[in-house]
Each structure stands twice: as C-alpha cells, then as structure tokens.
Amino acid sequence: MRQAGLTAWKTVEWLLLAAVGLIFVFPFLWMFLTAFKTMPEVYQFPPTWWPESWQFQNFEIAWSSGPFLTYVWNSFLVAAGILVLQLLTGVPAAYAFARYRFRGREALFGLTLIALMIPAQVIFLPVYVEMSHWGLVNTLWALILPYGASAFGIFLLRQSFMQVPDEVIEAARLDNASEWKIMWTIMVPMAKPVLVTFGLFSFIYHWNDYFWPLIMTNSNEVRTLPIGISMLKAAEGGKLWNVIMAGNMILVLPILAIFFFAQRHIISAFVYQSK
Amino acid sequence: MAKVVLKQVTKEFNGQQVVKGLDLVIPDGSFTVLVGPSGCGKSTTLRMIAGLEQATGGEILIGEQPVNDLPPGKRDVAMVFQNYALYPTMSVYDNISYGLRNRGYSKKECQVLVEEIAEVVGLAPYLKRKPSQLSGGQRQRVALARAMVKKPQVFLMDEPLSNLDAKLRNQMRVELTSLHKQLGSTFIYVTHDQVEAMTMGDQIVVMNEGQIMQVAAPMDLYQEPDNLFVAQFIGSPAMNIVPAAEREDQVWGFRPEKALLRHAGVSSVGHADAMDMHGHIVSREILGSDTLYHVETDKGRVVVKTDTESLLDAGSAVHVTVPLSSIYVFDRATGKRIARAENGVRQQILAGGVV
Q1: How does residue B269 score in pLDDT terms, banded at 50, 70 and 90?
Q2: Angle formed by the axes of helices A241-270 and A225-235, to 10°?
Q3: Where residue B344 falls among pLDDT bands split at 50, 70, 90?
Q4: Using one digit for the tens of pLDDT, what is the confidence trace for B166-217?
Q5: Binary contact (A190, B81; C-beta < 8 A)
Q6: Could you give the CA distance from residue B185 to residue B31 in angstroms, rounded to a whole number?
Q7: In B, which residues are within 8 Å of A171 by CB distance?
Q8: According to the model, what pLDDT value does residue B348 have?
Q9: Residue A109 covered by a domain
C-alpha cells in the first residue's frame, strides 16, 4: 500500500519535472528544427515538427551573409577579455573583503553591493560619453573596459574565500608565502567551483550581450555575434527565420559545449559540500 | 636550534589584556609545554612567537634575534595546528614541499627532502593523495612532516593531538617525544590537558588569566606547587583544599593519595602530627587499581584516593587522616604557597590506604 503510494508520488514528481524541462527545452528544440527547414515550411500551418528535408545550406547562408568569423572572434575576445579582467580585479578585491580588517571595509563592500543592483541601461550614457572622450567608441576596449570589475564576482568570491579556515592561511604564511601567492595558490584553487560558475555566468552573459555592443559599435570590424545575427534579420527584412535560427545556433553552440564540460563544477558550486 | 626569550610580552585585544607582561626563557632544545585553562593566553603566546599575532608590548627573541617585526615566514619556526590546516587542494607531496618552494629550494632539492621526511613519518606510500583521502592520524603526520621538512629552529604546536581519538593520541604522544629527542630542536607545545603536559614536557609553564603561575619540571610542579592555582590545576583528581587549623588567613592543601581513610569504628591512631577529619562517604568511583572516595567532612568535601584492596561503602562514617608532612600551606588572600605545616621534620606515618 505504502509502496504503491510512493511509486505514484514518484510518477507525479517525474511528470512535473518533465513538464518544466519541456518548457525550458522547447525553444531550443524549435530553434534547432527551424534552422533546418525551408522558408515555406517555416510558415506552413499547421507547422511540421520534423523538417521535411534537412536544409544545411541555411547555415551557409547565415555564415556568408556577413563577416561572421570576425563576429565570433570579437565575441570571444570580448567575453574572454572581460572575464580575465574581472578575475584580476575580483580575486584581490574579494580576498581583501574576506580576509583583511581595514577602515571603510563595510562601506566599500556596501558600495559594491549597490553596484550589483544597477543595470547597464542606467549608466550607459555617461559611460558612452567617457568612452568617446577617450576615443574608444567603436573599439573592442569600449566593450571590455566598462565590465572590467564585477560586483557579482566579488560578492560570490568573497563568500567562498570566507569559508577557508584561518589556519590554512596562517600555515601558508608560516610557509613563507606572500599574500599574492596565498591568494593564487591557496585561495583560488579552493574556490574553484565558484570560479568556474562565475566564469560561465560572465562568459555567457557577455557572449550573448546585445545591448552594450549595439551602442558602442558601428562597424563590422568590432561587432559581436549577437549584433551580427540581428543584422541578419535587418538585412533580410525579418522574414528568413530559418536563416536567423541557423545564426542563433552558431551563437549558442559554443556556450552549450562549454556548459556541457563544466556541468560538474556548476553543480558542486551550488550544492553544499561537507568534507 | 635556538632558545626563545619573552621579555615583558603583552597582548591586548580591543583594550583587554589577554597576556600580561610575560617573562619566559625557553631553553635551547627543551620540550616546553604551555598549559592552562581555556582563555589563559597560552595559544595567544604561541601565536605571538609564531608571528601570527603582533605583540602589543615587550620583546620576543628567537636565538639571539629580536623577531617582533619579522613576518612568520622569516622567523625560522614551524607550526602544527590543532585542525592540521593542510592545503586541501594540494597533494601530500605539495603540502610538504610548499614551504620549501617558497624558500627558493629547487625542485630536485625538494624531492630529496620530501621523500626523506615522508620515510621518517611513514607517509611514503601516500605522497600523491589529497588530504581528504587520508585518516586523521595520517593528516597529523602530514602536518608534522610539513613542519619538519623545513628544519626550523623552533617547533610550535597548538594542541596538535586534540582532534585524535584516545588511542592514537597516546601513540602520537610517545612519537612526538621521541621525535623531539631525535631532532634535538626546541619544541613549544600548547595544551589544556595536564596529562599531556606532564608526560611530554621537560619544562612546564602553567598559565592563568594571561600570567605565568609557575615554570618548573613536571615532578617539581606536582610536588612543589608555588600557589593554589598550580596545586589545583596539576594532578588528577585535584588537590583538596581545607581551612587551616587555627589560622584564619591560611588554607591547607593535600593530595588525594596522601590521605588515610579509616572506618569511624576503628580507634583513632591519635597522631599529634596529623590532621584528622570526620565525615561520611558520599560516593565512590572504582577506577581499577585505584578508588576515589568523595567524603563530606567537617571541613568540607574532600577526595581521597586509595588502592582497591579493601573497599568502603558509600554512606560509611569515616575518619580522614593526613600527615602534616603532606600538607601544603597557602595564603588565603594571595593563594601563595607558604611552607609545609610541619616544619621540616618528616615523621614516618601511614598514608594512602584504608585501615
């Protein structure tokens, strides 16, 4: 009796999870399928699930309709450049917030948290003016520098650094390690799951970012992939959905690949670990 | 190898003095144990020697060199922490070699030294493992190896055995003492456990409320305590304290094993040179070879330790007799030791047992 109830409950649980999963997966699936359809099939009603014939040339059309290699390379440079800068500024900042007592620490950390709550849309105008003063508009620097420090990253890393027992740091000091060395050889490896998770968040966010490159760039040499894909839409009058979806596939594929390999770290960053 | 000297060392936390003007000489090559109840400042003292805490006042010398302004890594000391404090992301090998690498040793030199030490502490098969894959005892050995490989002048140990189970603790106690003999370095060891202090140290520093109560060899500490605190802190069960006969400003103390327990029915031995108390046994603890009696007497509750040859039952009315030669006299106000009750003349008298 109890066994049967348990099984029934399990079934309900699975059905619910499957339903939620479907809600998340469906847009991806639709993008994937649409990317392989012909134009008439896209507009066909009722829609077909499976493409009647697989149109691989959609990808070719998307890829050749602009300097996509440049877009991909720019997107990568921007996302990676931002991540490197964010780690270079965030790790020492988080270490200081977590491990040092200094005057104004609380106030500075409060300021960092406030920065976390301000969206880019609020400050883009002054930042644009600043970038234009420096002559950086329409360069990759305008895409990288404003994101060089991440409040979210500092917050996340600080929490993780605070978990490190004092004695481990003291042992390293007795082992004649400099603060810099302690930070990079003791703290950072211990915060690896959090770092990987933050790295993914940051990379995905800036890889996909549309708003900032849109206002900071106006030539193909510095445009990123999301802009390139949106121009696909503009160029084709917003009609060729199959090509646009093929472009989107090109956009998300690297992210999905990274995500697939980093999954283990993401889970361990969010699940409580006991050692 | 070096001696460590503390001169009027003080430490304040938020305006509160936790270490109050310590003067202490830790001889070269000694095994010195700092012992005292929690909050007595023993760990803070050790951490000041290590350089992990800055002394508020006074001077600390290692060898002949003042080290107050030297960072921990430059003091030529090594420390073993209570919770081992191993680097969890590094292998055992990297844990041990980390300090050497930071001192500029080459990879080759490190390898030779690490392998040599690993052999000594029996870690050779585990060098590639992470600390999380080791048992408590093995982690303790890694912590020791990490300290030993640096060949420091002074070893500092902050309750290194208290995370181990009783059996392993006994074993490590013996190993640490023989290690000390083997290395000949200065060991400074902090513990709250007086058994550890008595068994391992050749010099014991008893601390209380940020001050040194007494510095002595283990048996001297036991037999000639300077004050009430040491008398009651060292020895288990603690020394009994009763009001002194006739003198209001003094108290008497005697060790539980120095008292003689007699049935109230047995006629008094009637010694003028012994203290006699009447009472009844409140409870009895049989420890195997010994028995502890808690006796409620006319002078307060006392503990008497006897062998287990003839047992008295709880509730029995008894006499407790203590030879004056075994009585310590303390000043009631200051707690300072004055002299023995009986002036030097030691009389042969029965002590320690049940009649």
Answers
A1: low
A2: 160
A3: very low
A4: 888 888 899 899 989 988 899 999 999 888 899 999 999 999 999 999 999 9
A5: no
A6: 8
A7: 79, 81, 85-87, 146
A8: 44
A9: yes
Contacts of B88 in chain A (CB under 8 A): 168, 190, 275
Average pLDDT over chain B reads 88
| Degrees, nearest 5: CA angle B16-B22-B28 | 140
- Residue A66 predicted with pLDDT over 60: yes
Minimum Cα–Cα distance from B156: chain A residue = A174
The CA distances from residue A74 to A81, A208, A223, A224, B175, in Å, are 10, 12, 7, 5, 62
Contact A245, A56 (CB under 8 A): no
> What percent of chain A clears pLDDT 70, i.e. is strictly above it?
94
The boundaries of the domain holding residue A254 are 58-270
pLDDT at residue B349, as a whole number: 46
pLDDT digits (tens, 9 = 90+) for B113-154: 999 999 888 889 999 999 999 988 899 899 999 999 999 999
In whole angstroms, what is the distance from residue A193 CA to residue B98 CA?
A: 23
Which CATH code is given to the segment(s) B237-354? 2.40.50.140
Cβ–Cβ of B99/A167 closer than 8 Å?
Answer: no
Top residue of B89, B139, B140, B188 to mutate, by most chain A CBs within 10 Å, is B89
**CATH dotted code for B4-225:** 3.40.50.300
Closest partner residue to A190 (CB to CB) among B51, B82, B88 is: B88
Across the interface, do A167 and B89 touch by the CB < 8 Å criterion? no
> What ipTM is given for this predicted complex?
0.82
For B203-220, the pLDDT digits (tens) are: 999 999 999 999 999 999
pTM score, whole prediction = 0.79
Token pair, residue A141, equals: 């620097």
CA distance, residue B151 to nearest chain A CA (Å): 12
Residue (of B271, B264, B341, B324) closest to B295 by Cα position:
B264
Range A217-243 average pLDDT? 81
Whether residue A149 lies inside any domain: the answer is yes
Tell me if A8 is assigned to some domain: no
Residue B174: alpha-carbon gap to chain centroid: 15
By Cβ distance, the residue of B50, B83, B87 closest to A174 is: B50
Residues 6 or more apart whose CB falls under 8 angstroms from that of B112 comprise none
pLDDT score at B267: 61
Q: Is A196 contained in some domain?
A: yes
Which residues of chain B approach chain A closer than 8 Å at the C-beta?
50-52, 71-74, 77-79, 81-83, 85-90, 98-99, 102-103, 132, 146, 150
pLDDT tens per residue, range B308-332: 877 888 888 999 999 888 899 999 9
What CATH number does the domain containing A246 carry? 1.10.3720.10
Q: Where are the alpha helices (DSSP H) in B158-217?
A: 166-183, 194-200
Domain ranges of chain B: 4-225, 237-354
DSSP string, B257-280: GG-EEEETTSPP---TTEEEEEEE
Domain count along chain A: 1
Q: What is the pLDDT of residue B304?
A: 93
CB contact under 8 A, A186 and B85: no
All residues of chain A having their beta carbon less than 8 Å from the beta carbon of residue B99 are 174-176
Length of chain B as a residue count: 355
